[in-house]
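Narrative of accomplishments. A recurring question from our advisory board has been how the design workflow behaves on a single, concrete structure rather than in aggregate. To address it, we present the structure tokens for one chain from the evaluation set, followed by the sequence designed for it. No filtering or post-editing was applied between the two.
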């Protein structure tokens, strides 16, 4: 799986299995589960400098403009210039207010969707300021829990833009956050066939 940002465990990737989430009363905890049955709580992982994931998270936060809505002058030229600056540094996600712009890199970007990065965008953490598809699911989940109202996420783009893959990452992250909430998890899982139908239309 491709990865970006955050910290990455120095443990062998072959041991990693999934993200766990536990809820007891009003408390919750989460982390990583490995194939040998061992677990690692969120925030306990060791940083591995060789992966470059920390550097990428810094780049995603500092290269160009994170949120184009904050620019003094917002024109087609400035938008394209900012997106190109970030894209050239393998930063494919940029916000324009509440809209997330994602550019298809047509390659694997190391660290972009790692388990450690997913945990940085979990529901019990502050809304992450760095643009990412996981931030969209984090915000939707937080709003759902706070307001108890339906949430809608629109993914649009031309053919080949990566809509289906984006939807898979988004739904996968939502499922990771709602583990332990059986009814909610089942409802989200039922969305998958519908997404596939639209993605293959």
């Amino acid at each position: 799986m491709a990865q970006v940002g955050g910290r990455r465990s120095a443990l062998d990737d072959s041991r990693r299995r999934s993200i766990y989430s536990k809820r007891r009363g009003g408390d919750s905890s989460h982390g990583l589960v490995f194939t040998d049955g061992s677990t690692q709580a969120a925030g306990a992982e060791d940083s591995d400098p060789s992966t470059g994931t920390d550097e990428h998270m810094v780049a995603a936060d500092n290269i160009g403009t994170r949120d184009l809505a904050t620019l003094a002058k917002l024109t087609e030229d400035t938008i394209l210039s900012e997106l190109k600056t970030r894209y050239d540094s393998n930063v494919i996600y940029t916000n324009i207010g509440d809209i997330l712009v994602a550019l298809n890199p047509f390659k694997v970007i190391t660290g972009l969707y790692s388990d450690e990065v997913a945990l940085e965008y979990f529901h019990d953490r502050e809304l992450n300021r760095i643009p990412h598809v996981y931030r969209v699911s984090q915000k939707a989940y937080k709003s759902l829990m706070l307001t108890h109202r339906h949430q809608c996420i629109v993914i649009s783009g031309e053919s080949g833009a990566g809509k289906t893959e984006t939807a898979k990452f988004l739904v996968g992250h939502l499922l990771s956050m709602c583990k332990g909430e059986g009814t909610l998890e089942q409802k989200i899982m039922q969305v998958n066939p519908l997404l596939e139908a639209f993605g293959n239309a």
